[in-house]
Amino acid sequence: MIKRILRHATLLILCVICICTVASTPPPLAADTNSPLANIRTPKFDNITMDRYAGSGPVSPISLNFTNVKIRELLQIIAQFTKLNFVINDNVKGEMSIHLHDVPWTQALDVILKSQNLGERRVGSVVYVAPLKELMSQQITELEDSQKMRDLVPLTDQVVRLNYADAADVQKILDTKNFSLLSTRGTTNIDVRTNSVWIRDTPERVAAIVKLLHELDYPVKQVMIEARIVSVNEGFERQLGAQFGLTDPTHLSGTLTGANTMVEDTATTESEIAAVPLAQRLNFALPATGAMFGSTNQVGSIGIAVAKLGSAFIDMELSALEEENDLDIISSPRLITSNQKKAYIETGEQIPYQSSSSSGSTSVSYVDAELKLEVTPQITPDNRVILNLTVTNNSAGTPISLQVPGGEPGAGSAIPINTEEEQSSVLLNNNQTVVLGGVYQREKSNVIKRIPFLYKIPLVGHLFTNSDRLTQKDELLIFLTPHIISRPSEIASS
Predict the structure, then answer these.
(1) What whole-number distance in Å separates Cα of residue 383 and Cα of residue 180?
(2) Is residue 250 domain-shared with residue 326, that is, in the same domain?
(3) Under 8 Å between Cβ of 416 and 394
């Protein structure tokens, strides 16, 4: 009985305590319509992170509708919305009215800051907001302090010996004002004898420069240019055209025999040869008009199977024709040059001429009459070669008598120089051949044969005289074959 009474008493006490607790709870507060937070619509932003603030993904939209709200309160609202840490400078003051609807919160922050000449800086995970002038002043001060600290860093020296790059060229790169890796205290010098670069700067700058030099000191590809300068007579063009597809000055000559021969290394049967289009067998056109030589006709255009015309094939053909006295191989030079470096070869003679000064003294000078070939190769990324060619042919002309200013013939004569020049740029695959034509050499001679004493007899003396006038015109054909050399060991094999 006593236990039952105690149990009921305990339940009664608990009920009284609960009733008192409910009675003491204050009623819910009414919404404060004057609070700035009442005018902000904040969607769920639990997923917003600092990565999104950094611009790695989309940001949640925000709507703001305030009139004459304090700037500091706006920034506090954005801080609560983004759950970021904002530090606001004491000089951030003022009010503004803003009405934005569903715009990214980063854009809303930019609008607020720009309208009040404010700026932001991120220090770790904290966003610091201050007037722009103060931020700029702080940055300038930090840069000056950083520069002073760098000026206190001791300098270090390092010598880098280059294997392939030229030390003088590397120094120009390092000393470029617009792109200089050197600090204001840094200097460079070179040793031409050992092709070395001496660097003095802070350890950080020296390490960066040494890394750059190792990347620049890389062997570039070279090009061996195999040239064959051939002289043929004018009537020989037809025979040569039958094998290489040339055209004569007036009409197309030659057959596809030579072109078919060039593709037989990959196409053996007649059906396979016929399957190769004509444009691939005769696919290189180098027209040269005759205007520069005083003619309206076509001087000569060349159509060869560039893709199949090998160096060994040309050597056999030219050697066989030379044995038959059909052509004359003037020279077969081989030039090796680096990528985008000019190489040239010239052959000819120096013609002396006499010149006089205003004082009346005379001197002998020389002028070049030569055949000159300049080649500048450029290796493309797909391992082909662009050849920039210049061919100059200067020859001695017929001597002319010198004249004094009054128009009367003076003492002596001068030899004029006939000049011819051809420029071209052609893209070739490795080990392919290009042919340049249209460079002529003219030779005129007048041979008089007569019987002594008898040719002096009046009236009948010409019967004992024989005069032969000979005019010979030879054309120079220049065959050029580039060979790309990637490693120095390939030079010996070439």
Answers:
(1) 32
(2) yes
(3) no
Distances from the Cα of 420 to the Cα of 414, 438, 471, angstroms: 19, 10, 19
Please report, for residues 6, 7, 8, 143, 220, the alpha-carbon distance to residue 3 in angstroms, rounded to integers and kept in the order given. 5, 6, 9, 84, 106
On whether residue 368 sits in a domain, the answer given is yes
Q: What does the pLDDT read at residue 195?
A: 93
**Which among 148, 173, 205 is the end of a domain?**
148
- pLDDT, mean of each 10-residue run, the chain (494 residues): 59 56 43 44 37 46 88 89 88 89 88 90 86 90 82 88 89 79 87 92 91 87 85 55 37 41 44 46 38 37 37 57 62 84 85 72 80 89 89 78 56 72 84 76 69 78 73 75 78 57
Question: Are residues 171 and 114 located together in one domain of the fold?
Answer: no
Residue 198 lies in domain: 153-216
Q: CA distances (Å), 247 to each of 231, 292, 378, in order?
A: 17, 18, 30
Tell me, what CATH number does 96's domain have? 3.55.50.30
Number of domains in the chain: 3
- Is the residue at 4 inside a domain? no
R_g over Cα of the chain: 45
d(C-alpha 238, C-alpha 232), whole Å: 11
Q: Please check whether residue 317 lies inside any domain of the structure.
A: yes
Element (DSSP H or E) covering residue 420: strand 417-429
pLDDT at position 392, please? 84
3-state secondary structure of 158: strand
Rounded Cα gap, residues 300 and 292, in angstroms:
13
